[in-house]
Structures are given as C-alpha cells and as structure tokens.
Write a structure and sequence with these properties.
Helices cover 31% and strands 31% of the residues. With 190 residues, the chain is α+β, with helices and mostly antiparallel strands. It has a 7-stranded mixed β-sheet with strand order 1-2-3-4-5-7-6. The N terminus is likely disordered. The protein binds coenzyme A. Coenzyme A binds next to strand 4, helix 4, strand 5 and helix 5.
Length: 190
C-alpha cells in the first residue's frame, strides 16, 4: 500500500441516518449479497428502489432507525430496524437487518452499524431486538454474539436455497430496562 492509500485507510467510518440519495448505493450492496447467495428474508426478489424508498419514509415516521455507514463519502454498509410484528402488543420489539459492502467486510463496519442501531432502538424506547440469521452465516452469528444477542431458537428447514433446506437461528437481546419495568405510556414510534 502506498503512503496516500495508507493515509486514506485511516479515515474513519462514519454512521448517520440514511438519505434518499443513499438508496441506489444501499441497493447495490444488497444486490451483490443476494447474487452471491447471502441468505435474506425479503422474499424471492431483490427490493426495487421504490420499496426501499417507501420503507425509509415509513421508518422515518415511526422513529425506527435506518442508518448508513460511509467511508470517504461512499456508502459502505447499512442497517435498519422494523417492528417485529405490526400488532400493537409487539410495539416495543424491533427486528433488524445489516449489510456491509463486500469490499469492506471484516473492517469493523458491521460492528459500528450494529452498535449505532442498538443505541438508536434503545433511545426510541424499544425493549427487545430480534434478528433472524441463517444457521450457516458464521460472520453474522459471531457479530451478534459479540453484542450480547443470545440464541432464542432454531427454525429448522424454513428456507430452501442452493438446492437444500436451511435452518434459521433467532437471536435476541434486551434494550434499556428490558422486561424489568413496564413500558412508558407513550409507545415507541407513536
Ligand atoms: C455480518 C456482517 C454484517 C458483518 O459485518 P463486518 O463489517 O464484516 O463485521 P466486522 O468487521 O465489524 O466484525 C465484527 C464481528 O463480526 C464477526 N465476524 C466478522 N466477519 C467474520 C467472519 N468472516 N467469520 C467469523 N466472524 C466474523 C466477528 O465477531 C467480528 O468481531 P471481531 O472483529 O472482534 O472478531 C457482514 O458479514 C455482511 O454484511 N454479510 C452479508 C449480509 C449478511 O449476512 N447480513 C446479516 C444478515 S442476518
């Protein structure tokens, strides 16, 4: 690595709320992982730009975080949370997703995004965070373990991809007071 490249790689990765202008970069990251077989929970196709735009708009209205990580001004990863379930009883539980650009894996971007996402969900008043992770996805399982997510269950053979059935691991961690106190009168996202 020459001196200029070494200096550039010292530049920090920054995390901030996503913007409309980030949508194409987020989709490119997502499409690459889908093409290369990373498990997803989005149905059969990659989301179209309008889906992602719509989701961002909805999340903004409900104060759910939708974040990007940038390095030298480029989007190198993103993470967001949605409500675990839409029914009112579940309004204190968020379910999240996280994707890092394939050229920037293993450099701490996922760690930064997940920390910010946890902090943002806690600040918004959520009490539980849930992730669904393919049982073969060692990096994601390790990342979540590092942040205190415990295995909450295993869904056997719930996905069929690459010619075989795959299991999904459910991971969970509590936020803030967790289940030790009742929720405040105002629900998150209301
Ligand atoms: C999972 C993912 C978000 C991790 O992002 P990342 O930026 O590469 O991870 P980081 O460099 O921040 O590493 C954080 C921790 O993750 C774990 N990890 C990352 N890469 C790993 C690998 N190849 N093998 C095992 N553990 C790994 C480690 O615990 C690491 O902590 P450490 O550096 O202290 O050992 C990334 O691999 C990714 O985007 N994968 C494709 C999409 C995906 O699977 N998303 C999750 C769906 S549930």
């Amino acid at each position: 690595m020459n001196e200029a490249a070494a200096r550039a790689s010292d530049e920090p990765v920054l995390v901030r709320p996503s913007r409309e202008s980030d949508v194409e970069a987020m989709l490119a990251i997502y499409r690459h992982h889908v093409r290369n077989g990373v498990p997803r929970d989005e149905g059969t196709g990659a989301p179209e730009p309008d889906d992602l735009r719509e989701r961002r708009k909805n999340l903004k209205q409900t104060r759910l975080p939708h974040l990007v990580a940038t390095w030298r001004g480029e989007v190198v990863g993103y993470a967001y949370a949605v409500l675990f379930r839409k029914r009112p009883a579940y309004r204190y539980t968020a379910k999240h997703s996280i994707y890092v650009h394939h050229a920037h894996l293993g450099r701490g971007v996922g760690r930064l995004l997940l920390q910010e996402l946890i902090d943002a969900c806690a600040a918004a008043g959520f009490r539980q965070m849930i992730g669904y992770i393919d049982a073969d996805n060692a990096p994601s399982l390790a990342l979540h373990g590092r942040f205190g997510f415990a295995r909450a269950g295993l869904l056997s053979g719930v996905a069929y991809r690459h010619g075989r059935w795959s299991d999904t691991v459910m991971v969970q961690r509590s936020l803030g007071a967790g289940t030790t106190t009742p929720p405040p009168v105002t629900a998150p996202g209301r």
